[in-house]
Please model this.
Amino acid sequence: MRLDPEEAHTLLPRVDPGRMRSGRAVGLRDGAVLALVAAGLTAVEIAALRATAITMANRQAVVAIHRHDLSWSIVLPDDLGGRLLAWLTEARIWGLPEPVFHGCRGPLTSMGIWKILDRYRNPQSWRQCSLSRASKQPMNLPRRRAA
Model:
């Protein structure tokens, strides 16, 4: 299934750039991911993207990608480029050969990109799910005695 750039563009206003999780600016990250989807990149291209592939030309963000064994560049509109540049600045990865997007377990995969889109498609169900996870009490396991 292909990512829909128009849908991603409509989901962008739902992103809270100030959202933090475990000390990470996931709101900025999610906004940058949705901006790249809105620009027409695929989940595989976004997951494979390195910070060295993002440059500035004539005061606009330019993303170099490989698609079908061809290299090409896309100039991002100001609104989309601004979200990507904010993330690169926050993550402090400008010009580094690092993956652009990380989750809590390492670099984001294409499935991770899909999950970010799903989070903003169904924000109510995501909040309810995370609230129910947070409210669960740990199981009462027998405690080990110190030897």
